[in-house]
Write a structure and sequence with these properties.
alpha+beta
């Protein structure tokens, strides 16, 4: 009786059975037979009350950041928006809004440790991703994309992507990583000047595309990425007018996108894939064949191209890691020592990788992701009313969740502007908790974070093992391009000072 009462109170029976009036009366009668059941039903019914019946909570107005706080911030010039939002949150609270001349609506920001905790634990009940990516989805002719999905469908598609983006999968295919990486690095000669913003995404993509979609895409990665960056600037950040996506240059880049999809499909016939290890494209095509309504043909192209876009984010992260290594000679030497041990008997694959301690390399990457997070904020729309620290953004409000603002808060990371890889030693563990969030928060947390950390580490070890790089100029101070994601500026360059050993063929 207690179980029937609970199910009835939650109004679940009507989703299971077709009930006539007599059946509903009988269920109601049975539910009222137990005293404890009636008490529980009354308590639950109050929590299930609709918005109009909920108790009104007094809220505070969301503060507006004065323009002077933005103009006089030292982080505006460097492009470090994580540090910018950290300073604003410490002064104005966890919820504040910014009036910008290039956006139609005020920019409402959530930042701080409490905001991170709330987003991770409760955000899925009050926020959704669908709205802010609606225009971006249409650009690619798709009905929906994984980043723009919520609920059960989002969970199901994440499982497909997750199975192909695990660290274990990469460990088992490391021979397909080393070969292309060595091939790309072989082109570096002493005296060459490497522009980080293009060099390292290409290095990552030389490995990423063959592993995930079975083709080499070096000839078109820059075009596809530029188109995607323009689309995000228009439809996500709203800093450019829509006609900027229809210029002759953008139309030419969009054609590369269509040709790329044709190439992927051409090499993924059953006969060609016989005996080959399954990749992301195989899994997506299988899901489409088994359930074309869930993953229609219109959604496949962007799913294929997502590998190239991921290479751009990883390339930016590798740029920051190389900068951190090269700008600190003591760390450079420690990583070279780890690389010498790691590659002493060839290139480890599979479970062999787990036998080596890459402690310095791993902690350097973690600190880079704290100080230079490639995705410094998430965007969501309010779908259900909520209150955070006394503030209640209206339903429909677009929120910019600056989850990495905590990376620059003293109470979370002491001396946050100092690059210190010892933060992650067992006795300190400053990354524990919701203050360290380079991979996002909640249900949209990065699927392949373990893959990312391994691929970044291996590429950094390869570079350190075979080359001595120097900054150009030597006293270069890092600055960022924060739109649409955090990336180094074109001014970040390295010089190949020495080739330490020959790359194996």
């Amino acid at each position: 009786i207690l179980l029937i009462s609970l199910i009835h109170t939650c109004d679940v029976f009507r989703f299971i059975f077709t009930l006539d009036e007599a059946a509903e009366e009988r269920i109601a009668f049975i539910s009222s037979m137990d005293v404890l059941g009636r008490a529980i039903a009354e308590a639950i019914s109050q929590t299930l009350a609709g918005p109009a019946l909920r108790r009104t909570i007094k809220t505070r107005p969301i503060p507006t950041v004065p323009i002077r706080d933005l103009l006089f911030s030292p982080h505006i010039g460097t492009g470090n928006i994580s540090a910018l939002f950290a300073g604003l949150a410490e002064k104005h609270g966890p919820v504040f809004k910014i009036k910008t001349p290039f956006m139609k609506e005020d920019m409402v920001v959530l930042a701080g440790l409490e905001a991170n905790k709330w987003t991770h634990r409760s955000g899925r009940n009050y926020l959704r991703a669908k709205d802010y990516l609606e225009g971006f989805v249409k650009v690619y002719g798709a009905g929906r994309l994984l980043p723009a999905m919520d609920g059960a469908d989002h969970f199901r598609l994440r499982k497909t992507y997750g199975s192909m983006n695990s660290r274990k999968k990469l460990e088992n295919r490391l021979d397909e990583l080393y070969g292309p990486a060595r091939g790309y690095l072989a082109g570096w000669q002493v005296g060459d000047v490497l522009t980080a913003v293009s060099t390292f995404p290409e290095l990552i993509n030389s490995q990423f595309s063959p592993i995930n979609i079975g083709i080499d895409t070096q000839d078109c990665i820059s075009e596809v990425i530029e188109f995607k960056k323009r689309a995000l600037a228009i439809h996500l950040l709203r800093v450019l007018p829509e006609f900027m996506l229809h210029t002759p240059g953008m139309k030419r880049r969009k054609k590369h996108f269509a040709r790329l999809v044709q190439r992927v499909q051409a090499v993924h016939t059953p006969a060609q894939r016989a005996g080959c290890p399954r990749n992301l494209a195989d899994d997506l095509l299988s899901l489409h064949a088994s359930d074309p309504q869930f993953l229609p043909e219109t959604d496949l192209p962007f799913a294929f191209v997502s590998s190239l876009l991921a290479a751009f984010y990883l390339g930016s992260a590798l740029s920051f890691a190389v900068y951190a290594m090269v700008s600190q000679p003591a760390l450079y030497r420690r990583i070279q020592a780890e690389a010498a041990t790691f590659f002493a008997n060839g290139e480890p694959v599979g479970e062999e990788v787990q036998e080596f301690s890459l402690d310095t390399t791993h902690r350097l990457i973690m600190e880079c992701q704290r100080m230079y997070p490639v995705v410094p904020m998430q965007v969501r729309n309010v779908m259900n009313a909520f209150t955070l620290e006394g503030y209640s953004p209206p339903v429909g409000t677009r929120l910019f969740i600056a989850q990495t603002a905590t990376h620059y808060m003293d109470d979370v990371f002491p001396d946050p502007f100092s690059f210190d890889i010892d933060r992650y030693l067992p006795e300190r563990k400053e990354q524990v908790g919701h203050g360290y969030a380079p991979y996002g928060l909640g249900t949209h947390t990065c699927l392949g974070q373990n893959w990312v950390e391994l691929q970044l580490a291996l590429n950094l070890l390869l570079i350190a093992h075979y080359f001595n790089l120097e900054l150009s100029p030597e006293d270069y101070q890092l600055r960022f391009n924060p739109i649409p994601s955090l990336a180094p500026r074109k001014s970040l360059k390295f010089v190949v000072a020495e080739k330490r050993r020959e790359l194996p063929a």
